[in-house]
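Summary of Year 1 activities. Much of the first year was spent building the evaluation harness for sequence design. The harness presents a backbone, in tokenized form, and records the residue chosen at every position. We chose the following record to illustrate the format because it has been used consistently in internal testing since the harness was completed.
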């Protein structure tokens, strides 16, 4: 079994301390304890381009102008499940949007010609974890803007989004515990890692039941 975990952040200055990347590494750590291989993909390592609707992917099912997207997409098609870890931007990071829109285009063009078409990612279990700079009060807005946005795209791509519970039917969201200010222009965010660890472990258990 092989799982992918995609860190969607665009922010360069955070480097290895990116919350998205830290959460991806947590997922990999927990899955490795179950002897399940998990590869982490950091979208900052890829140069991606937006879909221009040229239609060339209809014949190849790959983008003719974006080799980095094709590398990511090939990894996704060979996986048994995927996690998307995304911060709240406006509403989601640009590179993640590029990945989703190209996967949507590849699927939609074939479905439009044949409504019985099943994509290469048909039924692929997909987990979604969002996070932002707000505490518990902000989580429902993150769900609406990040989780639900990603889930809508994955529905078109024919993936199967894994719910956390009835209310959180498009994954989970992570709050900050405290936000501090120092001389830097960026805020310093502290997290309740024991709570996060437990929530991710619970979500992984739900996820693995879908595989």
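For this record, the design step produced the sequence shown next.
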């Amino acid at each position: 079994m092989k799982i992918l975990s995609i860190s969607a952040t665009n922010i360069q200055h955070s480097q290895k301390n990116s919350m998205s990347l830290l959460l991806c590494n947590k997922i990999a750590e927990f899955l490795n304890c179950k002897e399940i291989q998990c590869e982490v993909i950091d979208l900052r390592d890829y140069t991606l381009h937006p879909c221009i609707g040229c239609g060339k992917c209809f014949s190849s099912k790959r983008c003719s102008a974006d080799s980095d997207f094709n590398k990511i997409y090939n990894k996704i098609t060979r996986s048994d499940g995927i996690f998307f870890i995304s911060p709240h931007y406006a509403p989601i990071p640009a590179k993640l949007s590029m990945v989703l829109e190209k996967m949507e285009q590849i699927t939609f063009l074939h479905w439009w010609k044949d409504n019985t078409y099943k994509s290469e990612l048909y039924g692929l279990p997909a987990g979604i974890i969002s996070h932002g700079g707000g505490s518990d009060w902000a989580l429902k807005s993150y769900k609406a803007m990040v989780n639900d946005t990603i889930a809508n795209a994955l529905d078109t791509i024919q993936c199967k989004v894994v719910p956390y519970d009835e209310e959180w039917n498009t994954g989970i969201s992570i709050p900050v515990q405290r936000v501090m200010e120092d001389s830097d222009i960026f805020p310093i965010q502290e997290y309740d890692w024991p709570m996060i660890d437990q929530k991710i472990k619970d979500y992984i258990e739900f996820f693995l039941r879908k595989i």
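The chain has six helices and eight strands. Quantitative recovery figures across the full test set are reported in Table 2.
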